[in-house]
Amino acid sequence: MNRILSRITSPTLLLDKKRCIGNIHAMVEKAQRSGVIFRPHFKTHQSLEVGQWFREAGTEAITVSSVRMADYFANDGWEDITIAFPLNVREMEEINHLAGKIKLNVLIVNKEVLPFMEQNLRHPVGIFIKIDTGYHRTGVDATDHKSIQEIIDRLDRNPLFKFSGFLTHTGQTYKSSSSQEVLKLYQDTVDKLVKLKENIHTHRERMILSIGDTPSCSLVHRFEKIDEIRPGNFVFYDLMQYHLGSCTPGQIAVVLAVPVVARYPERNEIAVYGGAVHLSKEYITLSSGKRSFGSIVQLNETGWNDIEEDGYVSGLSQEHGIIHAGRQLMNRTKIGDLIGIIPVHSCLTANLMKGYLTLEGEEVDHMGGN
Amino acid sequence: MNRILSRITSPTLLLDKKRCIGNIHAMVEKAQRSGVIFRPHFKTHQSLEVGQWFREAGTEAITVSSVRMADYFANDGWEDITIAFPLNVREMEEINHLAGKIKLNVLIVNKEVLPFMEQNLRHPVGIFIKIDTGYHRTGVDATDHKSIQEIIDRLDRNPLFKFSGFLTHTGQTYKSSSSQEVLKLYQDTVDKLVKLKENIHTHRERMILSIGDTPSCSLVHRFEKIDEIRPGNFVFYDLMQYHLGSCTPGQIAVVLAVPVVARYPERNEIAVYGGAVHLSKEYITLSSGKRSFGSIVQLNETGWNDIEEDGYVSGLSQEHGIIHAGRQLMNRTKIGDLIGIIPVHSCLTANLMKGYLTLEGEEVDHMGGN
User: Fold this and answer.
1) Which residue of A8, A109, A352 is in closest CB contact with B369?
2) How far is CA B244 from CA A141, A229, A344, B249, B279, in A?
3) Ranges for all domains in chain B classified under CATH 2.40.37.20
4) I need a surface site. Which of A54, A167, B101, B130 has the fewest CB within 10 A?
5) From the candidates A169, A260, A277, A366, which should be mutated to test the interface with B, based on the most B CB atoms within 10 A?
6) Which residues pair with A209 in a beta bridge?
7) CATH 3.20.20.10 in chain B, residues?
């Protein structure tokens, strides 16, 4: 590891492969125990190499967040992909291209797109209806059985449309203040989906109830009454998930290594080369009311130590990071050192960094964002 | 333009070349009128093509924010570059490589790096001392004449070190609430730099006082007592600069075109394909106390209309944007339409989008971030 650290000259996203594979296996096994389909979301890592680790753990079906990402993974041999983003009619040509070569599922969030799809779809696609179970971002309200039944009736009349089931994202769990609240929101989501399923009719043999958020998937011990889980962030976890109680610090698999460029003991600050273009501007609010753009860890022989209680990233501009540092952290930090930062939101950090370095010094690919 | 818009299938950063070149010429002329060196910061656009527009306007000296960016532009023939980021000792090899082929200026923010530089620098470099004039990010406090004199004395003893002057970034102007406040902060910065210059001694013939922030450079009519300006953001401007009074809406040269994927009239919301991985999570706080992640414009035959009073981007997740839309905007917006979003911070948006499309349909390069 020292040999690897000495090679690092600029902000570098370190990936603990062992932890990452541990996270993958834990979720695979949990899905197996509950007998649900495991369709991990690949938007967090966007990596063919990390995808391969999933494949080796038995994963065959995946979720992505864009048509381009679907194409990226389809070209690497993934043949069962759900694009978990509202169908964008402007990308119909690319969707047709993909639907012609793999088992593709798309997401519809309203009936308005159906006439367009009926006219333009050329190959069979699986269709999930996005259900709004309380996050209020997109989807049909879970209690609006009438609209949902109308959509299904229309889907059932077209042989190219294979109605697959209901998909939801309980994104409100990311704003929870406790594990109990996450579990309550999860249960509420399941109840709404089950009630919906009982109240609608379709001639399809199977209807999948699919949930996705990492907090629920991490905290629920056994999935009941649902059929599929689509977590993504759990592959790396991050500071936000740790604060929600979704993971332990020992499960967090990525850390941004940044060079120290200045010290200001008189105001308890350390300046590092590592800013908004590396970490993103996502933050959490500490109990003190201050914003943290990342937690601090010390890099060591085999990876990194526990989270420092003595400091946090208090500010970010384009390439600068400011670390608020207590006396201990300040005293042992020299200009030219590397400091480790646990990102608040690993999906956004990975998207900005566009690549990883494992603790063994291997480079790991990333699609390159957007 | 309609032909160009009809080609757009996913989030695309539109660049109004005419406005951009107008912004460049206005700043070039202002610098000429004041007789100051114009050394624009290229971190906003990170583009060889946009760099060429500067070159055609007579620019020869530039500023960048990373060693990699210096290398990128040096390879395109730029031979006078200031890296306006605290010297990172871990990148000494790359710095030596650059210093061996172009006129390179580096920034030192403290005396601790001097022994390392004395030992490792192999070619002459210009050296600016970063002065903290109140932003408190990095640099030596403007009133700490003793430390600054010590650094200069040490620089003056080494023939490879060419002490160039004092550089500051009045970043506190970005948090101003009025143009008057920006001008007050600018004047305070100039006063501090002038006082510093009068109080230190060097055997160099010329000492440059260099300022950089776009709000000051935009609002000051005539630069006096300083020698160099390094604005960057002004090349595109953005919502933050408009709110500070640094520009008119008609000077903003980039807009993110995003496809509409869902409408929710019952809660005054439109969902678009365009999220944090396209715009960044930077926001401004509206007078209502709400956060805006972007303003809305209607795309038209020749570019885009004025800012809509009737809506703004109220939320962002990874790929989703939520637009709070009044009745007019809601009524005229259909699924599949393109909406224009003025980014809050164009530097971060450009860094994420990694490329531009001009209103004439030409693709314009971007270094690709970090």
Assistant:
1) A352
2) 40, 46, 29, 12, 19
3) 2-13+253-364
4) B101
5) A277
6) A166
7) 17-235
How is residue B90 annotated by DSSP? G
pLDDT the model gives residue A301: 85
Is CATH 3.40.50.12500 the classification given to domain B17-235? no
Q: What is the mean pLDDT of chain A?
A: 96
Per-residue pLDDT, averaged over A33-37, amounts to: 98
| pTM of this structure | 0.96
CB neighbourhood size of B134 (10 A): 16
Two tokens at B113?
């790096």
List pLDDT tens digits, range A181-234: 999 999 999 999 999 999 999 988 889 999 999 999 999 999 999 999 999 999
- The sign of the torsion formed by the CA atoms of B32, B169, B365, B102 equals positive
| The pLDDT of residue B370 is above 70 | no
Chain A residues with beta carbon closer than 8 angstroms to that of B89: 259, 335-336
For residue B248, the one-letter residue type is: T
| Whether pLDDT at A326 is above 90 | yes
Lowest-pLDDT range, A43-52, A247-256, B49-58, B173-182?
B173-182
How many other CB atoms are there within 10 angstroms of residue A300's CB atom?
12
Nearest CA in chain B to A275: B370
Give Rg (Cα) of chain A.
22
Token pair of A194 as six digits = 């089950």
Residue ranges, comma separated, of all CATH 3.20.20.10 domains in chain A are 17-234
Alpha-helical runs (H) found in A275-345: 276-279, 327-332
* Domain range B2-13+253-364, CATH class: mainly beta
- Predicted confidence at residue A177, as pLDDT, reads 84
What pLDDT digit, counting tens, does each position of A151-162 carry?
Answer: 999 999 999 999
Place of tokens 């406005």: B19
Chain A hits for B322, Cβ within 8 Å: 137
Mutate to test the interface with A, among B6, B94, B261, B273 (most CBs of A within 10 A): B261
Fold assignment, A17-234: TIM Barrel (3.20.20)
Closest residue to B369, CB basis, from A8, A259, A277: A277
Q: What are phi and psi of A155, to 5 degrees?
A: -60, -45
What is the pLDDT confidence band of residue B76, given thresholds at 50, 70 and 90?
very high
Taking a C-beta distance cutoff of 8 angstroms, is the pair B245, B219 a contact?
yes
ipTM over 0.90: yes
